[in-house]
Amino acid sequence: MKKIKISFIGAGKTTTEYLRVIKKFKSCEVVGIVGKRILNAKKLSKLFDISFYGKNIKKMLKQTHPNIVIICVPATEVLKICKIVFPFNCISFIEKPVGINFQEYKKILFFKEKYSHQSYIALNRRYYSSTKKILKEIKNDSSKRIINVTDQQDLEKVRKLGYDKKSIKYWMFLNSIHLIDYLSIFCRGSISKVKIFKKKIGKSRYIDCRIEFSSGDIGIYQAYWNRPGFWSLSLSLDNHIWNASPLEKLSCKDSSGNIKNFRLSKFDSKYKPGFYLQIKDLINVYKAKKNSLVSINSVNQTMKLINDIYIKDEKI
After folding, report:
1. How many Å apart are CA 191 and CA 301, to the nearest integer?
2. Rounded Cα–Cα distance for residues 61 and 150 (Å)
3. Residue 190 in this model has a pLDDT that exceeds 90
4. What pLDDT, on the 0 to 100 scale, is given for residue 314?
5. pLDDT grade, residue 316 (50/70/90)?
6. What domains are there in the chain, each with its CATH number?
7. What value does the mean pLDDT take over residues 35-61?
8. Which DSSP string corresponds to 201-254?
9. Less packed terminus of the chain by CB within 10 Å, N or C?
10. 295-308 as b/e, with b when 16 or more CB fall inside 10 Å?
11. What is the pTM (predicted TM-score) of this model?
């Protein structure tokens, strides 16, 4: 049986994490890797036995003929890379976000349709064992859901990490997407009403957003910018409340006050959380098997909601 050929665009830490996972799938073969820093690409090619490495994307695609291309580049580069990749006959898998803002995202969708390209987005928190466990347990619970998501971002730390000005300007798309996407994961129906409260407190900002869905579910998004905070998720049902804080850990409390804690899956303990099952589903996409991978079209609600919260009337 022929192996599934995979190539990488980007040779950073995220690519390394994916390579560790793919190494465990005997049906796959990584045939190429390119990166802006060719020494990084060369290092990974030796470490993971990849025959092609370099800087030229088109050259790699033409020589390696990959079935799947995994794109792990800075958000500012995604649109440019998609324009190069989409004309080729392959499946693309893009590390979030798909475009640095909502406008770029829509341009990427345009090119996807133009070339009838099959493309997916990597949102690994959808594959956390905590997320999967909640979805499984509440599948048959018809009660209205109240989802409370807490976000925290510190732009001073982001600057110190060396991110460029454009990435910092649209940091909500680069990082808050992880939290805001939980509303699309757990809330049923379409968004019917959004109410936003913003308050500047010295050098920091507080945002409180209430989102109503056509199903009757309610999403609450709270964000603390430039002050300490935790990433967390709680999901309230008639008889249970689920809590993930940090997001990788999970507990459930019932109406009698009983609390149950859940363990991480072996995959989330061994690899970067969510990555193993995400790659497994990517392989299932290629094999036309059942999967839960997120197409770039289906993340429209999340991208638009980020835009509505942060960009529509003012920028944080």
Report:
1. 8
2. 41
3. yes
4. 56
5. very low
6. 4-125 (3.40.50.720), 126-265+296-310 (3.30.360.10)
7. 96
8. ETTEEEEEEEEEETTS-EEEEEEEESS----EEEEE-SSEEEEESSTT-EEEEE
9. N
10. ebeebbebbebbbb
11. 0.94
